[in-house]
Amino acid sequence: MDIDLNKSDFNSTLVPWLGKTSKMMNLYIADVLQTNNFPITKQQWIVLKILHEDYDGIIQNELAFITDRNKASLTRLINCLEKNKLVIRVQSKEDSRKKSVYITKEGRELFLKTKPLMLNSILKTQEGISKEEMKIFIQIMSKIQHNLKEQSV
User: Fold this and answer.
1) Best-predicted range by mean pLDDT among 38-42, 98-102, 104-108?
2) Domains along the chain with CATH numbers
3) Would residue 100 be called left, alpha or beta, if left means φ above 0 and alpha means ψ between -120 and 50 degrees?
């Protein structure tokens, strides 16, 4: 795609649309959780989802990789979840540098209460979009991700 780097051409690329849509989605989810009095952020909810549905007891460094967060950022997020008794960390007996993260009973309860709300919110964002459009969109996003991986140093 040949573009002249003036403003009108830039706005016809995918980048500003991806950025604005991502920000709007984050604000929408934050508003949904806050309006329904759930004391959790979207990022915290994602960690609870991963622990509840896929990887309870995962090593913290692996969780950072799965969530695409740096170690310091994930540590802060887990500190908050742990403070609110939603997760616990257990130090490895074999390697004191490794900590496994587990969802607590309170974390499971909060996740299960919020899951229908989150699913409904996601479905609302997809209203008016056909299955074919969804398929095409996912293919396009996959290509963008592939292109970005190819460009990474």
Assistant:
1) 104-108
2) 42-151 (1.10.10.10)
3) beta
